[in-house]
Prior knowledge:
Structural class: alpha/beta
Largest sheet: 8 strands, parallel, barrel
Protein name: Aldo/keto reductase
Number of strands: 10
Keywords: NADP, Oxidoreductase
InterPro entries: AKR, K_chnl_volt-dep_bsu_KCNAB-rel, NAD(P)_OxRdtase_dom_sf, NADP_OxRdtase_dom
Number of helices: 11
CATH architecture of the domain at 3-212 and 278-297: Alpha-Beta Barrel
CATH class of the domain at 3-212 and 278-297: Alpha Beta
Domain NADP-dependent oxidoreductase: 16-314
Organism: Frondihabitans sucicola
Strand order of the largest sheet: 3-4-5-6-7-8-9-10
Strand content: 5-15%
Order of helices and strands: EEEHEHEHEHEHEHEHHHEHH
Mean pLDDT: 92
Low-confidence stretches: 329-334
CATH superfamily of the domain at 3-212 and 278-297: NADP-dependent oxidoreductase domain
Amino acid sequence: xxxxxxxxxxxxxxxxxxxxxxxxxxxxxxxxxxxxxxxxxxxxxxxxxxxxxxxxxxxxxxxxxxxxxxxxxxxxxxxxxxxxxxxxxxxxxxxxxxxxxxxxxxxxxxxxxxxxxxxxxxxxxxxxxxxxxxxxxxxxxxxxxxxxxxxxxxxxxxxxxxxxxxxxxxxxxxxxxxxxxxxxxxxxxxxxxxxxxxxxxxxxxxxxxxxxxxxxxxxxxxxxxxxxxxxxxxxxxxxxxxxxxxxxxxxxxxxxxxxxxxxxxxxxxxxxxxxxxxxxxxxxxxxxxxxxxxxxxxxxxxxxxxxxxxxxxxxxxxxxxxxxxxxxxxxxxx
Length: 334
């Protein structure tokens, strides 16, 4: 496993981050989740990403239990705040001082740790003053509950505004967590250039497009039993957009490119994401330990320019590139 600096900071994180969205506390049993975490540790992954909203706090609980007994200083534990948990009351969402303060205390308890390495604003809050949000984050840094601040799915202007306030407050905003893959490239035009200017790295989620880029879904065939596309708890809805015939044809064409390099399509797709020098880490999830072990082989793979051109040619016209598609909070669109 190789490591990269996160933003303009001294914090190093593993090129692959183990994330537990849609899995821990939901899709897989706790013993399987623990086995996946163990597999991540065994292949050298030191960075773990979760959020309080995942499985309504259960994902944090499962991760905390799975990491219990590990040397804390050898891990980078990330979580997020924004969405509602618990009874979902009127102050149980957003980035107010109240919600941030209460959320970090709950997250630390569930994760069984005194601090998180990175605390991330899960979305941009259009209703809370940004000054209030960043001041609350700064206070958590000074209290030692949080080491660094990050965000998720913020657009370029939001990143600039947040970074300016962070600098004024004497803290570091060092990361953004956007969706990014061969099929979803909306950060490239505006977010990545702004991030490079600001000293912010990307920690990207869904780098293999919810599993579509692995090649497991084939045109004209039934969906594999037990796959994410058949999971009605949430997986099916998020993956449906990429099950069209033209996308599946492109994924099939990716196979000989991967084979020439001695890689699987998943490993090649991860390597392509990591080819972007503004990406510090790609988040991988798993429902089986062997998936972690296989995907870990993508770390350290370096792609020649001609290979990158060949890959991108296959997906030409299929990827979403509109920067306006950077995700907004549900129900709070402008």
